[in-house]
Fold:
Amino acid sequence: MAYSLPDLPYDYSALEPHIDAKTMEIHHTKHHQTYVDKLNAAIEGNDSLQYDHVDELLKNFDSVPEDVKTPVRNHGGGHSNHTLFWTIMGPDAGGEPSGEIASAIDDAFGSFKEFRDKFNTAATNHFGSGWAWLVLDAGKADVISLPNQDSPLMQGKVPLLGLDVWEHAYYLKYQNKRPDYIEAWWNVVNWDAVNERLTAAR
Structure:
């Protein structure tokens, strides 16, 4: 079963002015599509790597044969990370979370502000390409950053919220000002979707 590029749940311009339409279009149709295509090429003909969802492949990363481990890490991770990324953003979003995710954040970090500060630091200070993550680790929320397209799923953690800090995610609009991109991104976080991920994980 070949993996395919998921449709965006909104128009490319829906996250304006925070994330521009051209960046969204290139990010989705070029970058994400390339991850899908290269993942499919890497696992073609290997029935043991054919899962209904790419996340299951990454959860079983330790059992991936050595000869395809690197492309599965890079392109499987890229496919999974971006599939999540599109869904945890949306128009008319942002603000502070409510419900279960708000409680989980308060329990783990003390307050939403403390969580946001820790997440911003992880995203800003991450060297090179990668992601900042809010994950569920052994039932508790935590903030981590990972290089390239590595997925928290490979470490047995559940990704709840992720921010792409590869330059292709922001350079057209923000150039080298990653902190400005991070600040703008909070205005498009879809907390309802994050809550759904937390509920499913529990």
Notes: The beta strands are 130-137, 140-147, 158-164. The radius of gyration is 16 Å. The domain at 99-201 is CATH 3.55.40.20 (minor pseudopilin epsh fold). The chain is about 50% helix and 10% strand.
